[in-house]
Amino acid sequence: MKHEVRSHGFTALGPLHEAFARLTGWAAVATCILLGAFSAVAFAPFHFSAVLVISFTGLVWMLDGARGHRKWGKAVFLRCWAFGVGFFLISMHWTAAPFLVEPEKHAIFLWMPLVLLPGGMAIIWGVFGAMAGAFWSASPSRIFVFAFFFALAEYVRGHLFGGFPWNLPGTSWVPGGALSQGASLGGVYWMTLVTVFLMSAPAALVDTREARGLMLRIAPSFAAVILLALGWSWGSQRIATPSAMTDQTIVLMDSGVPQDEKWDIGPDPILIEYLRLLSNQEGESGDIVIWPEGALPTTLLQDANALDAVGAYLGPRKLIAGTTRYEITGDNTRDYYNSLTVIDDTAIRSGPVALYDKHRLVPFGELPAARIIPFGGALSGILPGAIQRMARDGFHPGPGPAVIYADDIPPFVAMICYEGLYPSIPRNANLGARADWLVLISNDAWFGGGMGPAQHYAQNRYRAIETGLPLARVASRGASAVVDGYGREVFRAAPVTDAPSGWNTDFGRGKLPAPAPVTLYQTRLGLLLFWLTLSLFVGLAFLTWRR
Q1: What is the helix (H) or strand (E) element at residue 124, kind and residue range?
Q2: Which of 86, 94, 392, 470 could be cross-linked to 33 through a Cys-Cys bond (beta carbons 3.0 to 4.6 Å apart)?
Q3: What does the alpha-carbon distance between residue 389 and residue 338 come to, in Å, rounded to a whole number?
Q4: What is residue 114's DSSP assignment?
Q5: Helix, strand, coil distribution of the chain in percent, nearest 5
Q6: Which residues pair with 494 in a beta bridge?
Q7: Is the bond leading into 45 cis (omega within 30 degrees of zero)?
Q8: In angstroms, rounded to a whole number, what is the distance separating the alpha carbons of residues 57 and 191?
């Protein structure tokens, strides 16, 4: 028997509200999955942010119907969970790509990224959705309740067990555009709270109350339009002029070797390609050359032949490169680290100029050392081989965020791949002396050739907006580019025409932008803005609440 719903408010939307609210059982679950899946196109590479209006409005209307059920808690949980399953499955389907590098070995584990990952993360949305249901009402209050609990769910998702803050709704705006500049005020979690409110506000135009209240029904949408107008106007003014450029030249290099070839061919052909780029492409004394995460399938700092060759070709330049490295411990075992190193032409004799060890390890991708977690060695055996091949016994995390100081290089905040998702890393690193720029190296070859690399690049650009610092990014088979402190792309590495067959070798050379002024997010008030706005929503929910 279908749940009876009578809709009131804007006549044209009444039938749609009733159609969503009356759904029950598997029809409701399937519809929520489709709504969640549809919302994935709001993110890179599409950035059709407006589709979230349809997805979030539809979900709110379905919660209207669920809240009227006798077992409303279960109904609300299932609908929010199903919405999350659809969203995470479609927006992060690329997480299956590493398991297809060697499908004969790892295809049997595809259920992990395609079932376990979306189903597990969606539980967070289901739990917080059920909590929202406890405070639900037919009035516009439910929009503030929905935004409050959804934003809290995303905050928890970004922090629980280390967090996985991929594709937060606040990053759906085109980075570097006018509306994305709001991240400089309160960061992406604040942007997520505001975005969810903006996109769900139209749901208040229709509800099940018979009492008149047209102005109250319009109020959330009216507030959303005002906020959008103010945000666009302020953001447009903020990015009205181009950034000033420094005299520092940045060189971006990526061999672009396919991930499925990288470990079969060994380090020599890849090293030769990088040496060719160092010798054949434009370069001058004082250039800072950047290579991606794990540029060579070898421990560069412990490989004397590779280090000697790099130093010889590097000349009077500095190199920032990603590499796995190890330290010998007292019991003659090796502790492995995923590292970023700064070297010059004396590295073979003097060692690295500076070193940074990744401290946010990728869950189930960079397993901690076996003596840190039990069964680490056994787990690494079922993972795609190259992920753990350099450290079969697991990785050790580094000490934490830091500003890297090296001779003749402007001080920078280092981030490696997964770390670029976390607003706290560059922010915390800059709490003392402010860096001049951000450096992010990554191996996006693991993400496949679809949505994954584009999503990663877009989210990394938000770190520049939040801090006001330019970002130099080099990603293997991903976007290698320099963006300014407003998230705008300044230049991008271009394909090298004479690269080996099947390789996506990239090269780019240009000036580093000057930092933008210190953002509000970098201050104490910026960090509080998320919590202050949540408190405001609690007050607005109370003022508009009706039984």
Answers
A1: helix 117-133
A2: 86
A3: 12
A4: I
A5: 50, 15, 35
A6: 507
A7: yes
A8: 18
Distance, CA of 323 to CA of 341 (rounded, Å): 7
3-state secondary structure of 380: helix
pLDDT beyond 90 at 81? yes
Catalytic pick from 18, 366, 417, 466?
A: 417
Two tokens, residue 178: 């006018």
Tokens of 208: 């099940």
pLDDT at 302: 94
Choose among 518, 517, 484: nearest CA to 250.
484
Q: How far apart are CA 76 and CA 62, in angstroms?
A: 8
Question: What pLDDT, in 10s, does the model give residues 216-272?
Answer: 899 999 999 999 999 999 999 999 999 999 999 999 999 999 988 988 898 999 999
Picking from 157, 155, 151, the residue whose alpha carbon sits closest to that of residue 132 is: 151
Transcribe 462-481 into DSSP letters. Answer: HHHHHHT--EEEEETTS--E
Q: What amino acid is encoded at 415 in this protein?
A: M
Q: Are 44 and 451 in contact, with CB atoms under 8 Å apart?
A: yes
Give me the residue label for tokens 């060189």. 251
d(CA 288, CA 342): 10
Q: Is position 293 annotated as part of the catalytic site?
A: yes
Q: What sign does the CA torsion over 373, 377, 378, 381 have? A: positive
DSSP state of 355: E
Report phi then psi at 409, rounded to 5.
Answer: -125, 130
The predicted structure's pLDDT at residue 390: 56
Closest CA to 452 of 88, 45, 33, 49: 45
Contacts of 222 (CB under 8 A, 6+ apart): none
Report the alpha-carbon distance of residue 288 to residue 4 in Å, rounded. 67
Options 18, 154, 273, 293, the catalytic residue: 293
Strand ranges (DSSP E) for 367-425? 403-406, 409-416
What's the pLDDT tens digit per position in 120-139?
999 999 999 999 999 999 99
Residue carrying structure tokens 């680290």: 337
Please, what is the average pLDDT of the chain? 91
pTM equals 0.94
At 344, the amino acid letter reads: D
| Of 80, 273, 358, 419, catalytic | 358
Those residues whose C-beta lies under 8 Å from the C-beta of residue 20, and which sit 6 or more positions away, are 31, 58, 61, 62, 64, 65
SS (H, E, C) 186-239: HHHHHHHHHHHHHHHHHHHHEECCCCCCHHHHHHHHHHHHHHHHHHHHHHHHHC
Tell me whether strands 288-290 and 318-328 are parallel, antiparallel or unpaired: parallel
